[in-house]
Amino acid sequence: MTTPSSERAFDVRHVQLARALFAALAAVMVTFSSDHSAPLGLGVFSGFALATGLVFALSVWLVHPRGERLIPALLAIVSIVAGMVASVGTWRTTGVFFGVVIAWALVSGAIELIGALRQRKTIGAAGARDGVLIGILSLVLGVVLLLPIQQYALDYSIAGAGSFTLTGITIAVGLFGGYAAVVAVFLAIAGFSPRRTEPVPAVPSEEAAS
Hints:
mainly alpha
């Protein structure tokens, strides 16, 4: 017998809040770091992807019933593999950042979007909406990073501060930080939003009289 989600120790709400927490940590680390280089970006992404993958992996057994485990299992695999690749110190180059983050964003975004659309009847409209939006955001991140910005460089100067160069990797790491911030806010709102209670069936008059 399947335990109702309201009676479980862990449910979709906990998955959303855990994902929001790790996304928020990634956004804060990027935002408050003056170094938007490939090593920093891959280091932050590695922690974010591995933590998110672990959340999905745990949800396979703790949250989702047997017939709904494929999507979180696939998301766990994709995130953990991407996080492990990004964690290799000698691979933390600009090209690897673009390759890993683009591949992760496109694959995980497609999986989450398609999974949400296919499971609308089982996870409900709210759950499907969450998956659709996060999937679209991930796909947008991947598509934007596919634009020819890797070799971009713009020299500029600020009076009294000196000369600086805005590079493609700086923009890309900033975009990932912005993506993480939006995901964190949305999932936090979804996680803290009140759940619709299931209607209680009416008691027949004969049973009520007895």
